[in-house]
Amino acid sequence: MTLSTRLTRLLGIERPIMLAAMDKLADARLTEAVSAAGGFGILGGGYGDPEWLEAESAKLVAMRERTGLRFGIGFITWSMAKQPRLMDIAIAAKPDALWLSFGDPSPFAERARAAGIKVICQVQTVEMARDAVAKGADIVVAQGSEAGGHGGSRGTFALVPAVVDAVGDKAVVVASGGVADGRGLAAAMMLGAEGVVLGSRFFASQEAAADDSAKQRITEASGDDTVRSIIFDISRKNIWPAPFTGRCVINEHAKRWMGRELELTRHMAEEGPRYEAARAAGDYDIAALIAGEAVSMIHDVPPAGEIVRNITEQAEAMLARGQGWRG
Amino acid sequence: MTLSTRLTRLLGIERPIMLAAMDKLADARLTEAVSAAGGFGILGGGYGDPEWLEAESAKLVAMRERTGLRFGIGFITWSMAKQPRLMDIAIAAKPDALWLSFGDPSPFAERARAAGIKVICQVQTVEMARDAVAKGADIVVAQGSEAGGHGGSRGTFALVPAVVDAVGDKAVVVASGGVADGRGLAAAMMLGAEGVVLGSRFFASQEAAADDSAKQRITEASGDDTVRSIIFDISRKNIWPAPFTGRCVINEHAKRWMGRELELTRHMAEEGPRYEAARAAGDYDIAALIAGEAVSMIHDVPPAGEIVRNITEQAEAMLARGQGWRG
Description:
Two copies of one chain form a homodimer.
Chain A: H1 6-11, E1 17-19, H2 28-36, E2 41-46, H3 50-67, E3 71-76, H4 77-80, H5 84-92, E4 97-101, H6 106-114, E5 118-123, H7 126-134, E6 139-143, E7 149-151, H8 156-167, E8 172-176, H9 182-190, E9 196-198, H10 200-203, H11 212-220, E10 226-229, H12 231-235, E11 245-249, H13 252-257, H14 261-266, H15 268-281, H16 304-321
Parallel strand pairs in A: 1-9, 2-3, 3-4, 4-5, 5-6, 6-8, 8-9
Antiparallel strand pairs in A: 7-11, 10-11
Helix pairs in contact in A: 2-3, 3-5, 7-8, 9-16
């Protein structure tokens, strides 16, 4: 038995689990590992590095020729929009789906659909969900504030059913933010979602393109210890448009600057280089460890395929147990 | 068939649905309506008004003598701690459970347990859950940031399973924040909760002690339109200890002062009386309409008992359907 939902049928996959398109961290290796296990891997095109994107998507195309692999390519929409070439590279790879998050999907969604590519839009409010569907989204990812990295303020628990009520008749709704195990997948399905997106959980996988020390810290962190802020965006000189903020594990740098963001901007002559050096050295007392509240449920660093299989099996067991609550 | 969980068995109730102890809004009438339908009503002692508490608890005691009604009494712990007499009134009514939220439960939890009264502690983090259990909580309510009124920053979706993992072997865990229908109850159970607490949903019930115009506004609001802030606490001169903030529907007053909280404190000579007048007149363009992100799923103002029954039945149907997701 595997779970069959509108998501699995639309994408032609076996398990309703998607890899969050985490910038560079979700490279061809991690994307392939998730897809090979029956989930849906999405290459993390992120802000957009054409050389990286070309090289990583070429690997996926080569794998597809050998194995029939299915995969997506994902972008931070407002950033990708500044480099039209990125869209050419993505379309040329003929992914099964294009992931667009944070920004107006209009021109890109149309172009993808014209090329026979499904459109996934990640949204943070009900209004954004309506807009995404009007602009051609086949799949709407309702991302709750629990998520690691950039996101909004609404929580997953009330956002998912509200998005289902608003657009569920026109698009497939998927839950993102706070999901790390089979309980989360089963709960998301009860809320009306057809699958889940996992970020932090795949960050702490063997194949993720990240430092072992970062993965180790995720396994040790509590969800109590994360915060949404703009400290890290200021520190790396990567200012995002409102209303988005980025969730990270609270570290020394965050403790030092929380509530003093304006002051931080005035100290960037020293703090900028200090932050860059920490990133280069993998010093996560200063550099951001981007992860969500679901870290509470992450205690190991297994192969990504094992994560896909275990979560599905745990969810199946939870759903089967649903019949058991009888008076 | 009704749902049987550790919560229903511990409290001797039929349906795993609790009324949030909303200050004065959850009076004897609403408490009785929830309990009479098989849920667990909790009188909203809130900040603590001895005369009100004595009168309302006397009504519940009288009903219990006639019908065997089960009920709880709830307090905002840090506020109740300033008036020891409130605890005497509550104990004298011999409720089945005492609800303590926001503050150190220690002395009150011990006294309740000594009187054979179960202790419910609402918490906003995993650490607070551990502390509550160490201090004698029988039931831990994991309250996500989606909730209306005062609360913390962690979302329900990742908080509930983390609290279950931390204290689920020692206490019964219940989910609060973002729940308004049977999907929410079913999802909470998948996350490991043994029941749910509803606030906004019972606010928009016929029995809630609130203006009809306030209830109507809840049925019209979107979860996108709520915000956690301290604007209303400043405006009514009721400053809470950090880290708690209050979620309300965004209205004209909130739009005017969001991001300008410090400035608001300097304008209280005019804004304070203006706010008080609006509260007295039921003008919710200025006065806070305290509600959570679940308002997206609230479209009517039914009797509270109907809410209890409908949510349970919808959850039962969702859980039964759990078997249906097969490939």
